[in-house]
Amino acid sequence: xxxxxxxxxxxxxxxxxxxxxxxxxxxxxxxxxxxxxxxxxxxxxxxxxxxxxxxxxxxxxxxxxxxxxxxxxxxxxxxxxxxxxxxxxxxxxxxxxxxxxxxxxxxxxxxxxxxxxxxxxxxxxxxxxxxxxxxxxxxxxxxxxxxxxxxxxxxxxxxxxxxxxxxxxxxxxxxxxxxxxxxxxxxxxxxxxxxxxxxxxxxxxxxxxxxxxxxxxxxxxxxxxxxxxxxxxxxxxxxxxxxxxxxxxxxxxxxxxxxxxxxxxxxxxxxxxxxxxxxxxxxxxxxxxxxxxxxxxxxxxxxxxxxxxxxxxxxxxxxxxxxxxxxxxxxxxxxxxxxxxxxxxxxxxxxxxxxxxxxxxxxxxxxxxxxxxxxxxxxxxxxxxxxxxxxxxxxxxxxxxxxxxxxxxxxxxxxxxxxxxxxxxxxxxxxxxxxxxxxxxxxxxxxxxxxxxxxxxxxxxxxxxxxxxxxxxxxxxxxxxxxxxxxxxxxxxxxxxxxxxxxxxxxxxxxxxxxxxxxxxxxxxxxxxxxxxxxxxxxxxxxxxxxxxxxxxxxxxxxxxxxxxxxxxxxxxxxxxxxxxxxxxxxxxxxxxxxxxxxxxxxxxxxxxxxxxxxxxxxxxxxxxxxxxxxxxxxxxxxxxxxxxxxxxxxxxxxxxxxxxxxxxxxxxxxxxxxxxxxxxxxxxxxxxxxxxxxxxxxxxxxxxxxxxxxxxxxxxxxxxxxxxxxxxxxxxxxxxxxxxxxxxxxxxxxxxxxxxxxxxxxxxxxxxxxxxxxxxxxxxxxxxxxxxxxxxxxxxxxxxxxxxxxxxxxxxxxxxxxxxxxxxxxxxxxxxxxxxxxxxxxxxxxxxxxxxxxxxxxxxxxxxxxxxxxxxxxxxxxxxxxxxxxxxxxxxxxxxxxxxxxxxxxxxxxxxxxxxxxxxxxxxxxxxxxxxx
Length: 934
Description:
Elements: H1 7-21, H2 24-29, H3 38-48, E1 52-56, H4 64-77, E2 80-85, H5 88-102, E3 107-110, E4 115-116, E5 122-126, H6 127-136, E6 144-149, H7 162-170, E7 176-181, H8 187-198, E8 201-205, E9 213-219, E10 222-225, H9 239-250, H10 254-259, H11 265-277, H12 283-292, E11 298-301, H13 305-317, H14 325-338, H15 344-349, H16 352-360, E12 363-366, H17 372-383, E13 389-392, E14 406-409, E15 413-415, E16 420-422, H18 425-432, E17 444-449, H19 456-464, H20 478-497, H21 501-530, H22 538-572, E18 578-582, E19 589-595, E20 618-621, E21 626-628, E22 642-643, H23 655-669, H24 688-699, H25 708-735, H26 738-752, E23 756-757, E24 760-761, H27 763-768, H28 776-784, H29 793-804, H30 822-843, H31 862-869, H32 874-881, H33 885-905, H34 911-923
Parallel strand pairs: 1-7, 1-8, 2-5, 2-6, 3-5, 6-7, 9-17, 11-13, 11-14, 12-13, 14-17
Antiparallel strand pairs: 3-4, 9-10, 15-16, 18-19, 18-22, 19-20, 20-21, 23-24
Helix pairs in contact: 3-4, 6-7, 18-19, 20-26, 21-25, 22-24, 28-30, 29-30, 29-31, 29-33, 29-34, 31-32, 33-34
């Protein structure tokens, strides 16, 4: 209260208020009808003082206010501001928000698909667009004052993360950087790096959620709180949940119950009561329960696209209706307005009417396989409160502004591309961060469904942990190398790369490893003393023992390698129609060879699916499964037991077709018993080196020591610790200047291929500098060798698809269908060029496993994009491609993006540049052309 202040204190407070009112922040605050949080004020004050800022705060806490203040400052100072986002949908959303606030004349949009008012003082763009501008030395960078990097934690992304670091490193020093991140556990470390490369940077970390989040578990008919109510920061897990988990774990399995038929009636009754309380509720049941509790709107995260669609259908079949008649009419109006440009015949193919029925009832799916227009409609309706239940994959958690009152997680396990793995605390925080709408909800709710084997303690660990470290995924690429050398020369480029966050983290990690090396060296001294023998040099005796063991191991490996080679040679002789017996593995037993799957270059007169790690035959098992086997399934040579004719009409995707052929297989060869392999004499029995080592060992003085085995144990520990220490020393050496060393290897390869000559970038190099993407060097080599000359626009689109497409599933299928004629020949030539590049990368030690280098081109989308560019209808193309509309549109847009790069990079007079532009027009039609900017 001011009455309690002295006159001097009142005067000082009045001066402070007057100073605050004279700032840009005071003007900015008047634009909002709510007060700013302390972390927002702190960040905006630092920005106005000319500092860069890193703001790390939970999802939904209002970080973007700081980014909008940077826009406000830029407009006030007569400078430009670029607002970057990781995904196009988020760019579109931010463009709409800023255009509404500042006027469409002052705000522009630049993504791979759209260019709107790109000369405006404020431009929203994807991060890749800004990176490309920096390398091209674009005029748009003149008078750039501020860059906002929304969702900057994306630099951890192993596929695209490097782009964020490239932008941060290459922006001019005069540009103020505003970095907005989710809550990360090493924000201070990231801030230290920003301070190093960008100058004075203030780190503002806020753990406070503006809307408190409550955690629940839904089991059967009851919703349990995850934590007990109580004081203090350390929360205890609800004992009811712990008791239920213990009860379920002790419940006898079906087999146990079969064995214990004489179980007492009382035990049976208790088990029935337990089962009646604990079960996983169905999806419609969950939504109904949330609706009754007043916890809608809700996002249910299901880590499968098909399951999201199935969930909507289940709710429709259950008769669930979350909208009244007025809301239903409003939904139909909005949907019809947003989809007016889509032809009626396409609407039918896209499942429009089923989708609309769900929307009218207030229920929808949201995933990457949906048409972008459909996804945007779902987002708009959800924000307006006209869709109240959304079933989504985790892509929804990536920045799109779709807050809900509740978030439901069906499972705490998801497929990560290689295996089913537990979600991390960071992922859990990101997903549940959507719960609780600021200014609408008093509290948010995260609900996890009870599953068999559920652990309340594991969930409490996820909910209570904030470990989400930001790890750099930065790796130099071919395109980056030529662009850097052209701008800065080799030496300066190398220095720039050493300033990356990746190198910064690597250098910091070396300190801990060095300490471990010192500890190990002290331990080695103690072990050496303990293994000392009074009869002789025990170190020498231990060396003889190790040599003997190593020799025996080597011989065993050689024998195994010889057996593998014999097995591979036998596999190479297989032909389609051979009946074989798979000796081991999950698919052991009778099988029919459909495709030998021979390695590249060994066609055996048959054009099979090419592999580079030995034959991988595609077989039909007697149990009707079509699988591509690996060499591990054939530890011993295999030979054809019989021959069968494979009908031309056989379709491996048809269950009936598989059933008929498997039945014929069992009839033809089911009675044949394969010969058993005889074991040969071990190579170690006749090895002279082993005989010599055994003789020396017995003759050594220490061999007669009574404490020999005791000394040997200490010697083994000494040897193991010495080996570990050497490994740590190699890690220290390996982590020092790692990025620069990779860059050196890339530069050597590019010099060998005449893309670089010292600090000079050749004509070929300048072409490569305009090609961005995973297969940049392959695209450049195709242009250089004229592989695409003479192709029609549709054929060129088919070839370019191999540079961008990556199948979501493995290779358990036949070779993809390809366009005939010139396109097929060009695609084959692309694979051959990739093989040449792959060999060169191996020679120059450029390792794909480390994220550097060229992956094999994937031909799986060539036929679909060829058909589409040739004018075929959407129904026909999607049916043959067996691909969701959203995936088809996304891949088409990526093909268009690369076609645009190729038209700019190809020599001016060539047919490739002309046909690339035509191909863009032919692919950019129908569903692909529907603009995502309303």
